[in-house]
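Appendix B, record 7
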Amino acid sequence: MQSYTIGQAARVLGVSPDTARRWADAGRVATRRDDSGRRVIDGRDLAAFSVELAQGDGEDEDAYTSARNAFPGIVTAVKLGDVAAQVDIQAGPHRLVSLLTREAVEELGLEVGMRATARVKSTSVHIDTV
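Structure tokens (predicted):
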């Protein structure tokens, strides 16, 4: 399972590292210490928190901008069919959903909790892994 430092989690959530640290200190998102002693957040916990945050009451709402239609975020759901798949990415307050082939999902190794970037052009969403 992929883990995120406080700084990486802040970038995924579209907030400052200080805000992410305050949320962790307040127990809003669970952290643990890695082998180096750094505080990290497990990918699944960060994915769940990002969805919760996006559905919140807006009290922590910060503006989120994306240069050149690229939305860096975290994979929150992967639904595989026989041929097609659906991937949800939470990029700050934005939820992006992409329909793509199952083969593409498997080639990219997409799973809940990993970082990914949704790139939007016209009506298509393309996903890059980090």
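Remarks on this record: The first helix runs from residue 6 to 13. Residues 40 and 111 are 18 Å apart (CA to CA).
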